[in-house]
């Protein structure tokens, strides 16, 4: 029997309970996979607490994983038993085995370990669309990326540097600052002891940055807007500190005719060609060694509650995996 983390009530990390589950044969268009590794992301916390609404209770959390195809349903044309695959954005990842629609899967190149694939699909494809599609980062770009030592932050810092940008980050401890500086950032601001708006203005000689990437939310708004140059872009793609409350859109004009967006990976990979292009760009940049993926924490699947507790306490850095 397969094992999975089941959430039967919303709440803290203690609601994550391991259970035995029966995985039926894959339905038409589905693939069954034996998972080798599962990514842990802050979006999993949002669903566990109810900040984001799950389709129903109970449910198996998680959006990201990698493994081996063990069976395919009728009509499957993209995959065969034995294929190495990974995915991001498909609900139900916290399980040793699972069924998944073939359209949500990507083949993993043979030279990329499955644990690396599980660690990078959601975070890496997020970095891909943020830096290449939401805003086209290039040599003339000056950007600010909050949570620079986090999973997305470490990938984004390296990728942005490879694109030639000037990369400024924020982090919350000397250890995390050092880590960010090792991953592409030119400047890292300690948000616990420094005024990051003032430091950004100092670094940019008063001009501000072209774009702010903000996954923190409540704690960094509206200060993030004050880091932007006129007509700059605020990209709010998460809210690890809590959701940003409703605001008067007029504040964007008052602070310099600013732009704001709240993008999601799903929107940027909603078609098969978009998904494949995003994933392949990630594979290419990792294989070129311009971006390295750091798996800094691993937990047994049974210890998912501890993984969540450490994530929320900001004890983690880089990528966290669950191993079935």
TrEMBL record:
Every Enoyl reductase (ER) domain range: 11-322
UniProt KW Oxidoreductase keyword: yes
Keywords assigned by UniProt, alphabetized: NADP, Oxidoreductase
SUPFAM superfamilies with a match to the protein in the record: GroES-like (SSF50129), NAD(P)-binding Rossmann-fold domains (SSF51735)
Domain of life: Bacteria
Protein's UniProt keywords contain NADP: yes
InterPro entries: ADH-like_C, ADH-like_N, ER, GroES-like_sf, NAD(P)-bd_dom_sf, QOR-like
SMART domains for this protein: PKS_ER
Gene Ontology CC terms, in alphabetical order: cytosol
Entry GO MF terms: mRNA 3'-UTR AU-rich region binding; NADPH binding; quinone reductase (NADPH) activity
Any Pfam family matching the protein: ADH_N
NCBIfam families documented for this protein: PRK10754.1
Record-given protein name: Quinone oxidoreductase
Native organism: Ferranicluibacter rubi
């Amino acid at each position: 029997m397969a094992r999975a983390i089941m959430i039967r009530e919303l709440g803290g990390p203690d609601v994550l309970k391991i259970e035995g589950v029966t995985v039926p044969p894959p339905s038409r268009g589905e693939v069954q996979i034996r998972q080798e590794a599962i990514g842990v992301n802050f979006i999993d916390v949002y669903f566990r607490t109810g900040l984001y609404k799950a389709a129903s209770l109970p449910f198996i959390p998680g959006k990201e994983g990698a493994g081996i195809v063990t069976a395919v349903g009728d009509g499957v044309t993209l995959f065969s038993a034995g294929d190495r695959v990974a995915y991001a954005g498909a609900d139900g990842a916290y399980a040793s085995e699972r069924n998944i629609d073939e359209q949500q899967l990507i083949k993993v190149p043979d030279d990329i370990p499955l644990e690396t694939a599980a660690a990078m699909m959601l975070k890496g494809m997020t970095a891909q669309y943020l830096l290449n599609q939401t805003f086209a980062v290039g040599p003339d770009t000056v950007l600010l990326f909050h949570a620079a030592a986090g999973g997305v932050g470490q990938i984004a810092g390296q990728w942005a540097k490879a694109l030639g940008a000037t990369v400024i980050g924020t982090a919350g401890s000397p250890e995390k600052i050092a880590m960010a500086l090792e991953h592409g950032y030119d400047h890292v601001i300690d948000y616990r002891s420094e005024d990051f708006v003032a430091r950004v203005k100092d670094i940019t000689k008063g001009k501000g940055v072209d774009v702010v990437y903000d996954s923190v939310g409540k704690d960094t708004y509206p200060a993030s807007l004050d880091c932007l140059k006129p007509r700059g872009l605020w990209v709010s793609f998460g809210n690890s500190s809590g959701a940003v409350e409703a605001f008067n859109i007029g504040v964007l004009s008052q602070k310099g005719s600013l732009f704001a967006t709240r993008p999601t990976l799903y929107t940027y990979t909603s078609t098969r060609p978009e998904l494949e292009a995003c994933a392949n760009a990630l594979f290419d940049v990792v294989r070129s060694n311009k971006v390295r993926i750091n798996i800094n924490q691993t937990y047994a699947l049974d210890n998912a509650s501890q993984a969540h507790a450490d994530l929320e306490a900001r004890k983690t850095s880089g990528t966290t995996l669950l191993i079935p």
